Amino acid sequence: MTVKNAPSQDEAFARIRLLRSANIGPVSYAHLLCRFGTAQQALEALPDLALRGAKRGYTAARRDRVEREITAARKAGARYVFHDMPDYPALLSELESAPPILTVRGDLSLAARPCVAMVGARNSSAAAVKLARDFGRALAEGGLTVVSGLARGIDGACHEGALAHSSAATIGVIASGIDISYPAQHCKLQEQIATEALLIAEEAPGTEPRGQHFPKRNRIIAGLSLGTLVVEAAPKSGSLITARLAGEAGREVMAIPGSPLEARSHGCNHLIREGAVLVQDPEDVIELLSGFDGIPRSSFKEPVAPAEFLNLEEGAEDSADISDLLTNAPVSVDELIRQSGARPGAVQTVLLELEIAGRLERHAGGRVSLSGQ
């Protein structure tokens, strides 16, 4: 699917429409483009695919909805970056669930530099906020682009630190549309990042941030970066989700240790116990990532092999058997292939049809389950 130039205007419009259609996610989008060649052809096939997954009356996203979205993006000063454009971030494209379309404001070349994600608690301690700010500036000085999510606490501090350096080497990844500021207290910071550095959004312009958007944002933060550094975090937090996503992607995972008496340090200490690299100063991070060869020192989950793309002729006779193996508990696609005895392409075909019909959910680590809807 690699091309040298941007898609035509008609194909770009069709791609946005395809991705905004119901039950189409990054993996199903990639399968559809691989199978049909163009987004327009994929759009025409959606009703039949949904019917094969036991859903009647499927319709793609309305054209006027996409037209309004494009107008809003232009008004915000943003542009679209498609998965096969040469300036799409290379590291991010390695993820199986990489966003097919990004909206961006600012200098996209910052994503082509070595990047490090910095994440941590929203209700962070004053000491951790200062530490994050100092780390952000030092890492920018050391030639790294600092990636974070513009949240309160650690995220905002590391962005501010990186912006304080002349390179302004930071990327803000947000869980809303490119034209929505969140949280409100970071409105000026978000605009500064958009004008002096780089702001990235996956959601359509006009989309307010919702709970389900933040894990999706976190995978982009991890996917852009050679490694993820957790500064301060509770045991159950979005920061640890980002760290685990980085580990699953085969990237470095690092954590700053803290006092066992401080609950906000327990997440970092837990990561270190599980195999994250202990970091004490910015030089540790710079040294670790400057020599990163794709084999992390941290001992986290091995990366999941990319799914095999599918063939339209495969899978029809296996559909019932494969769907019967699924429950609401996530299971890997590889396990479905083993248990069904079907060809990988056949399994992927059935999963695609079930997803378009709204009966399948995809999870991190290449796992799937029946939809909870």
Walk me through this protein's architecture.
The strands form two sheets. This protein has a nine-stranded mixed beta sheet, sandwiched between helices. The chain has a three-stranded antiparallel beta sheet with strand order 10-12-11. The chain contains 15 helices and twelve strands. The protein is α/β, with parallel strands linked by helices and 373 residues long. The longest helix has 16 residues, at 126-141. It is globular and about 55 Å long. The chain folds into three domains: 9-84, no CATH class; 105-290, Rossmann fold; 316-370, Orthogonal Bundle (Arc Repressor Mutant, subunit A). The protein has helices spanning 9-20, 26-36, 39-52, 63-75, 90-93, 126-141, 154-164, 187-196, 213-224, 238-248, 266-274, 282-290, 319-325, 333-340, 344-356; strands at residues 79-82, 101-106, 115-119, 145-148, 170-174, 198-201, 227-230, 252-255, 277-278, 331-332, 360-363, 367-370. Residues 313-366 form the DprA winged helix domain.
Detail the topology: elements first, then pairings.
Layout: H1 9-20, H2 26-36, H3 39-52, H4 63-75, E1 79-82, H5 90-93, E2 101-106, E3 115-119, H6 126-141, E4 145-148, H7 154-164, E5 170-174, H8 187-196, E6 198-201, H9 213-224, E7 227-230, H10 238-248, E8 252-255, H11 266-274, E9 277-278, H12 282-290, H13 319-325, E10 331-332, H14 333-340, H15 344-356, E11 360-363, E12 367-370
Helix pairs in contact: 1-3, 1-4, 3-15, 6-7, 6-12, 9-10
Protein name: DNA processing protein DprA
Organism: Aurantiacibacter atlanticus
Family: Belongs to the DprA/Smf family.
